[in-house]
Structures are given as structure tokens and as C-alpha cells.
Amino acid sequence: MADNWNDKIIAEFHANAGKVGGPFAGKDLLLLTSTGAKSGLPRTNPLAFIRDGDRVVIIASKAGAPTNPDWYYNLLANPEATVEIGTERFRATATPITSGPERDRLYAAMVSVMPGFADYEKNTTRVIPVVVLELEKV
Q: Predicted confidence band at 1 (pLDDT cuts at 50, 70, 90)?
């Protein structure tokens, strides 16, 4: 189910220069391609993001599920990834931030743009990790 949902969003992203409709209409969305921690295969996920200076920030919310999303574990195993924003492609290095004032500031910044992230935090007992992506144009 999730793969089919993601596949449709990825196809729409590619067909419309990075813009998609539905729940993501008007929001910043990127495609993160990480290397599967177990499989070693490329895995692409559409994710909401915000900018923090030159950095891009994504949130490992999994909609408030009790576990982190698979892509988060992929980045822990291999922090090198590819990011697509609009029609641009970047090499990315991921740095997780799991606690402290910077994590809280960045999470609050995401909530200010996409208030649903506040609900995700309320729906789980885990501290939802923030991931900072340092981008380099391909």
C-alpha cells in the first residue's frame, strides 16, 4: 500500500517539476533516495522538508508511529543519499539530530509550516528524530 502511494507521488513529482497535489499541494516536497540498510538497494521516499540556511531538514515522523521510518534507518547505515528538489538533483549527507535545542528548534520550524507534525509528536512516546541534509549539486 505505502509503496503504491509513494509510487504515485513520485510519478506526479517527476511529471510536474517537483509539484504534487493532494495533502502536499503547495508544500515543499523532496525525493530522498537512500540505500537500503539491509537490502543495499536504492529506496526513494517523498518527504516534506524545510530549509535552514543552506541545509535541508526532514523529519522522521512516520505520522507518529511507534517506530522510525525505514528511510531513517537507511540513513543511519549509510548517510550518503540523493535528493531531488523540483528539477534539481543533489548529493546529500545526512546528520540525525535526536535531542537538544537544535532538534527542538528545527522540529518547531517544521510544525510552523506543516502543523500536522505537532499531531505526530502527540501520537507517539518516542522523540521524533530530525535529519539535516547537507546538499551538493550533482
A: very low
